[in-house]
Every structure is written in C-alpha cells, then in structure tokens.
Amino acid sequence: MGRLADTFSTFSTYGRGGGASGPGGAGGRSGSGRLGGRTVVALAASALLAAVLPASTAAAADPVPRIDLKVLVVDDGGSSVAAVTSELRSTGVPYSVVDLYDPGRPQITAAFLSDTVGGRPRAKYQGVVLPSEAPFGTDPAGAAEQAALVAYEKTFGIRQIDAYTWAHPGVGLDYTSEGGWAGTLDGVPAAVTAAGRSGPFGYLDGPLTFEDNAPDVSESYGYLARPREGFTSLVDAPVPGGDGRASLLGEYAHDGRRELVVTFAYNQHQRQFRLLARGMVEWLTQGVHLGQSRNYFAVHVDDVFAPDARWDTERNCTPGDIDCAGPGGEQTPDIRMTAADAQYAAQWQRSSGFTLDMVYNAGAGEEWKAEHGGVDALTAQLLADRARYRWINHTYTHPFLGCVQDVSVVPWQCAKDTAGNTLWMSRAQISAQIRDNHNWAVNKGISVDRTELVTGEHSGLRTLPQQPADNPNLAPALSDNGVKWVASDNSREPQQRAVGSALTVPRHPMNVYYNVGTAAEMADEYNWIYAAQADGGSGICETNPASTCLDGPLDTGTGYADYIVPQEAGIALGHVIANDPRPHYVHQSNLAEDRILYPVLDRILGDYRALFADSAPLVNPRQRDTGTELSRRAAWQKALDGGKVTAYRIGTTVTVQAPSGVAVPVTAPEGTRKQLLLGTAVFGTPYAGQRSAWTAPEVLQSAVTLRLPA
Questions:
Q1: Phi then psi for 601, rounded to 5 degrees?
Q2: Are 66 and 646 in contact (CB under 8 A)?
C-alpha cells in the first residue's frame, strides 16, 4: 500500500480511489512522472504535433493554437478530486470527467486531447485535474496515457493539479524523513506564503488553520516537506517537533510543465479547501475561465413588527403550537422587540458595516398596537430608521397560506370538504395579504420592492408530509401582485423552482430559534432537540439519521456563547465561502431581550474579515438579486450540460458562444476589455484580484469577445 496506507483510514469519503490510484498506490511508481524517460515524452510530443499540424503548416510558422475553455478531470473516486470538481461546477467552469474505474472510458491519447480546427491546432482542455501526479499505472497502456498527457501539457502550456499526493522527489519535494513530517493536520496553523499571496491566493489575508471539529477523529492527513529545485511553496506550515516550515501546496515547474502539488487530503466541505479552492481554479486556468464566484452573505429578519411565541422551558414546547398542551393552557409571554432594540439594530449596522433585511408583518404590528393602548414605540423607531434597512413583504398578518389546517389532530392535516377535496386559502385572501402589507409600507414611506415576497412559514408552497403540493391559488395571487421572487426553505427545497411566473429563492435557516429571547432559553431548547433521552433531551437525535446527539447537555448559562455561537457561525461561514448566494433567515425575537443574534453575526463577519483581503469583500444581495443569480446559474448549467456552449482562447482573444438569452459568466485578469460593435470597454467588476461578470454579446454580435491584456 506504500506510505499513504494510514491516510485512507482518516477519510471515510475518500471512496474507491483508495490504494489503486490514490497517492497510496504510488509507492511503486513514485518516479512515474517521467514514465519511460525523456525519450518517450519527446516522441509523444513529436507525434502530437504531427497529429494536429498538417505537413505544410508544420513547415511554416506555427499558428497560435486555440485553447478551449474547458477542464479535463481524471477521477479516481477520491474526495480530493471530488472537491476540485465541485468547485469547478459551483463556479460555472465547463469540465469533462474521465472515470479511471470505468472499463469503457476513453483512453488518454493525442487525439483525445487535441486536434486541428480550420488549420489551427486546438487544445481541447485548458487545464487538467489528476488524482495524483501519475494515476494511470506503470503498465504499457498506462505509461502511454501518461506520456500523451505530458506531451500535451508541454506542447500547449497546459497546467495540471495533482489533487492529493505524497511528498517525494517526483513532485519536487524531499521525502518527509528529510526534515519534513507526515500525520494528522487537525488544528495545524498553515499559512499562504509570500509567493502564494503574490500569486493565486492573493485574496487571502489571514491564517489558514486546518479544521479540528472532532478532537477524537482524524479529519485531515498530510505531508509537510521541503521544496527541491523548481518547487515554489504557496501554502506552508510549521514542522511539528522540527525546525522551520515546510510545504503543503505548491507549484512544481519542471520539464516544460507546471503542476500544482497538494500534499494534504481534503473534501469539498472543509474550510481549508474552501478557502483555497478559488485560487486553485485561477492557477489551473491561468486566470481566464468561464464562470465566476463571489462570497455572499445576506440576513433576513422575519416577523418584524409582529410578536413571536416563547419556548416553555418546563413543558419543552411552545404554547400556541398544537402539540403543546398543558394544565390550564398556560401561555408564556410573547417576544417582541422594543424601541431600544430597534435603536441598537441601527447602531449595530453602522458599526458592523452590514445591512439587515427587515421582513415585516405590518398587520400583526397594528394588531399588537391595538391591544396595547394604541401606542407602539417599536414601530415608530423602525419607521424613523426605515432608510437604514432593506425591507421585504412578509404578508400583512402572517397567516398560513396553504391548505386550511385541521389542528384537531397532531400533527395537523389538510382539511377536506365532504367530497374529500382539500380546502385551500383562496386567491383573494392570499392576494389581500400581499397587497395590504405592501400598501402599508408605501404609505409609511418605506422603500419596498413588490417583486419580493416571503410568506409566513414559507406557506402556500408545498409542506411535506401534510401538503405535498403548492396551494393552487398561490401562483395566481403572486401574479396579481407582481411577485417574481418568493422565498422557500433551503432545508426543504434547496433548488430554485417556478411557482407560476415567479421563482423561489431558497433561504438557509439559522439555528437561532424563533421562539427564544434569551441565551438560556436558546440553550434549553437546543438541549431538548440535540440531547439524548438519558441526558434529559427528547431523543430525536437518536432516531434521526441526519442528526447527532450532544456529548452531554449544554450549560444553560454558558452553552449558547461557548458552543452554539461558534457552531452556527461556522456553518453560516461555510455557506459564505462556497459561492452560495442564498440568504440566511432568523426572526425579530433574536434581536430582542438578550439580542442573541449579534454574537453569531459578529463571529461570522469577524472571521470572514480576518481571512480575506479587501479585494474580496462580502456581497450582500437583495432577495431579487439572489433569485436572478440562481436563475442565471441554472440556465448556464443547462447550456453546458447540453453542449450548447463554445468557448476558446487564441492568444489574447477570448470568444464565447452560448444560446440566445443565456447570460455568460466569465472571469479574466485586470486589464481585460470587452469588444463592442465600435471599440472596446472595460470588462466586468473587480473581485479577488480578477475581473468577472455575467455578460452577453452586444447588438449585432453573435458571440462575446474579450481582449486580454498582453
């Protein structure tokens, strides 16, 4: 099994790439990067040129080759290749996969990699992702594939990522026995080197500490090694128990080729990979590729102006819920922001440099006001600060917009008429809820976009298991009111879909509960959900395969700050750095009393700003902007999957053809200009050291044409 035998025990997700084609299987082929010596590669390069160039062309000056903007992924089923592939897909980079374990897979030959188009040599792939430096084996067939790939990369200047390998001279590194180290990297304080910051990882500004989420589990294994000639370390870490620092990721320039050598294992969800993923793609594609990526974070505060019910720490339920019965029907006091809470929210926004989306129920606020003597200092304060926030319609009084609920049974079910037909909230009722809430805001001078809507509890949309279909009256009511973007719950429906003429915008729920106002209440309810029955919890975590039980109940005095805040901030930050534009949602109760939301937000914003340079600011999109982004991505992916996109680079000119009406995402270096009908214009907007944008051909043009800086 070689030196990586222990690696695979640390990653249950590493999959079938284990010993055969992962770095562990490289024990007998550590030198196979030069399979057969330089003679084989030279002959392969000659054959490649002969294959792509006509004799008359080869004798003349070589034309500038065409490089197609597509990546070749050679997959061994391992987690590292899967992680890089997920980044390509998320970004919108086209790629083709060759499965090493598919007996019917194509062979990697000169003809597979390149050909000639219109007398011009064409490289079919702008970059190559391999499981390791030499995954094809040392038999004659594997050696021929390796030689063909090496010749291709040398001929066209194509770069290669070795997704995970061990440290040895074949990848430009000393063995770990020569001043290096091999072992578990959990918690290791790695860092981007000066070369990395001036190169592909210039968007990172802080420490690159490896995750250590489970102290008793090895989460990352890797090799710290000293560079040899031709190797430039881009990410390094201190050698445990040794002197100095050694490489974990770097560029190996040799034999006319460049490889990005990664000597630590990872999966697509681990923070260390997520932070480096953008730079890995930029390095691979040499900064020119289809697709674009941003770091997004938006927070919706639901139920503004309305009160929220409170968790009962004695009965372990929320009074008002149909499953919360008790002697005398005792009620806990509702939770509602005060004017002081509203003042604090405005001040926090100013100091944090972050804007919240207030998702409001005006009618619920008017009802509260009527019940409290006609005075409402909270509404007055929020209206005084209305220009400081963004506002989203949440319906007038927050009713359930789906089927008529029969709450005489637990769980509730959809009521039916005598003929067995489901009873639904009517189109007129839904429309009135949307219209009245919008009109109230307009009359109060609030700037609100009628195309955006969040229904109460995301109701009206299908709610499994009781309501498996949308309320048929919802789509017409949305159309009546000009709604184009309706929120959905990402934990139920992560993909955008149509609701009549509107599209959903999935939102991430944050585990800062709607029915708690204090940190102690939050910890108490968290214990009920995530503690085993033996520890006083509900035991749900013991029967739900998607849940994990706490090691023991949290201290209600300290559990929120010590455990829940870092846990929830880490989950949200994971979404932020995964090019995920979906907003997160909480409730107004979380801004009241103990104001428990702010420690989570402060942690997310603080951690982000410590990690990223100013060139990669957080993008805080409106709901409509998120909806547009998701819609564009879906159309783009459909065009890619259907083979409807042609994109290539010839010298400093990039050409992209896509179906009419499909926006094209492109990332390119600073200084890139877009060809107009007459002249050129600066392309895109700056982000993370590059320029990128969704773009389309100009009038009378059939393709997007970009001029790269010389």
A1: -65, -40
A2: no
What residues does 296 pair with on adjacent strands? 619
Tokens of 113: 């990699």
Q: Which two tokens stand for residue 533?
A: 């029955």
User: Of 306, 439, 310, whose CA–CA distance to 378 is shortest?
Assistant: 306
Cα three-residue angle 91-97-103, rounded to 5 degrees: 165
Cα separation, 565 vs 556, whole angstroms: 13
Distances in Å between the alpha carbon of 540 and those of 490, 524, 530, 543, 574? Answer: 21, 15, 7, 5, 25
Residue 503 carries which DSSP code?
E
Residues present in the chain in total? 710
Contact criterion met (CB below 8 Å) for 65 and 156: yes
What 3-state class would DSSP assign to 42? helix
Its pTM stands at 0.90
Separation of alpha carbons 274 and 534, rounded Å: 37
Q: What is the secondary structure of 207-274 as a DSSP string?
A: -EEPP-S-TTS---EEEEB-B-TTEEEEEEEE-TTSSSEEEEEEEEEETTEEEEEE-B---TTSHHHH
User: Which tokens belong to 528?
Assistant: 């009920």
Cα(464)–Cα(474) distance, integer angstroms? 17
10-residue mean pLDDT profile of the chain (710 residues): values are 33 34 37 37 47 48 93 98 98 98 97 97 98 96 97 98 98 97 97 98 95 90 98 97 94 98 98 98 98 98 98 95 73 96 98 98 98 97 98 98 95 96 98 98 98 98 97 98 98 97 98 98 98 96 91 97 98 98 98 98 98 98 98 98 98 98 98 96 98 96 96
Burial class, 569, CB count within 10 angstroms (exposed 0-12 / middle 13-18 / buried 19+): buried
Task: Pull the structure tokens for residue 40.
Answer: 């084989």
Alpha carbon separation from 108 to 19, 104, 641 (Å, rounded): 21, 12, 22
Cα dihedral 123, 39, 137, 286, rounded to 10, equals -30
Would you call 261 exposed, middle or buried from its count of C-beta atoms within 10 A (0-12, 13-18, 19+)? buried
> Residue 29 belongs to what H/E stretch?
none
Contact predicate 705/675, CB 8 Å: yes
Cα distances (Å, whole numbers) of residue 50 to 53, 141, 143, 554: 5, 21, 20, 70
Strand locations in 497-575 (E): 498-499, 502-509
Phi/psi at 611 (5° precision) = -90, -35
Over its C-alpha atoms, the chain yields an Rg (Å, rounded) of: 29
- Cα 482 to Cα 12, 381, 429, 438: the distances in Å are 49, 29, 16, 11
Our CA dihedral for 553, 558, 562, 566, rounded to 10 degrees, sits at: 90
Environment class of residue 468 by beta-carbon count within 10 Å: exposed (0-12), middle (13-18) or buried (19+)? exposed
579 φ/ψ sector (left φ>0, alpha ψ -120 to 50, else beta): left
Residue identified by tokens 């109760």 is 589
Cα separation, 409 vs 288, in Å, equals 59
The span from the CA of 582 to the CA of 435, in Å, is 25
Half-sphere exposure of 634 toward its Cβ, with a 13 Å CA cutoff?
Answer: 14
